[in-house]
Amino acid sequence: MKIWIFTLVALLVASLSVAMAFENDSPLEDPLMESRARDLAKEIRCLVCQNQSIFDSDAALAKDLRKIVRERITLGDDNAAITEYLVARYGDFVLLKPPIKPKTYLLWFGPILIFLVAGYTVLQFFKNANKVGRKSTSLNSLERKRVKELISDTEVE
Amino acid sequence: MNKSRLYFLLPVIIFGVLCIFLLRGLSLDPSAVPTALTDKNVPIFDLPALDDQTIGLASSDLGGEVSLINVFASWCLPCRVEHPLLMKMAGDGVVALHGINYKDESKDARAWLDELGDPFGRIGADRDGRVGIELGVYGVPETFVIDQSGRIRYKHIGPITQRDLDKYLLPLIEKLNQ
User: 3-state DSSP call for residue B44?
Assistant: First the structure.
């Protein structure tokens, strides 16, 4: 038991000691601006390591892009202008969250569409199954006679 | 064919279409991000010469003819791989070839060019990589095809192979020259 607690504490301490790449840069003096830079950096993809944001990445390009983000914030650009600047150079891919526009409708709404179609299909399936089930419960007199015949036939054989 | 048969076929058809997409995905390179600058003018830049043996490169030097800009660095191994092809292109004189030396030391780049040969007409030194970012460069080597009016027509990511040259770059250059 003790060793488990020890391991847990060690792991927690280890995870705390991993400094984010972002924190290794020299921060902006204005804490408000710095927190804006932090939020923006988390949304921008590092194109070298692709599934990391420039907030997390140690890549040289990520560092350069963080520098540009901070620079633009000090120059008074708003967030939209900064992402626009990056998108103009690196394309939508530089944003970790793809923008909603006609080209990405399928990406954003496709899953909902698939869910709706699948739900409808399943519903129809059970509806039909029910119908078939109800129909088959009652036999008319002719059918009943035929069944009787069949049963008695097998008994004879 | 009756209706219920078609319903059973539907999943098979969907699966087939999915397979086509997945198969295509196998041969795509997810690390290659197409440039957002295609058909846009080269961003304005003015880079100093690498050293006194070279001429610097500015955006105003481009245009008037079809040209290639190769972004390279002496610390970049794939650049070494593609270099013989660049030398051959420069020798054949098919296209104006310029270089941007990306985040490099001048003396390292000079030693590299002395060892492997210098195929470039002009070489701009982009020491801090700012022009690289203006151009949307995210790794070296990258090669831009610039048309006569100074617009970016194509970006090749990674080392150029003979196949890339034959399949994409040379046909495009030929088309632009017509």
Answer: coil
Q: Is residue B8 part of a domain?
A: no
Q: Do B133 and A47 touch (CB under 8 A)?
A: no
Give the CATH number for residue B65: 3.40.30.10
B136: in domain: yes
More confident call, A127 vs B49: B49
pLDDT of amino acid A24: 81
Bridge-based pairing of strands B142-146 and B152-157 is antiparallel
Q: Does B136 touch chain A (CB under 8 A)?
A: yes
Q: Does domain A2-99 have CATH number 1.10.8.640?
A: yes
Q: Does A50 touch chain B (CB under 8 A)?
A: yes
Q: What is the rounded CA–CA span in Å between residue B67 and residue B146?
A: 5
Distance from CA of B89 to the nearest CA of A (A): 28
- Kindly give the residue spans of alpha helices, DSSP state H, lying in B27-169: 77-92, 106-116, 130-134, 162-164
Name the β-bridge partners of B90: none
Q: Which residues contact B43 (CB under 8 A, 6 or more apart)?
A: A89, B37, B59, B131, B134, B135
Q: Is residue B24 part of a domain?
A: no
Mean pLDDT of chain A: 85
Does any domain span residue B4?
no
Taking the Cβ of residue B64 and every Cβ of chain A, the question of whether any pair is shorter than 8 Å is answered with no
Residue A119 or A103, more confident: A119
Quote the number of domains for chain B. 1
Phi-psi region of B150 (alpha: psi -120 to 50; beta: other; left: phi over 0): left
Kindly list the domain boundaries of chain A, sorted by start residue: 2-99, 104-156
* A77-101 residue pLDDT tens: 999 999 999 999 999 989 999 889 8
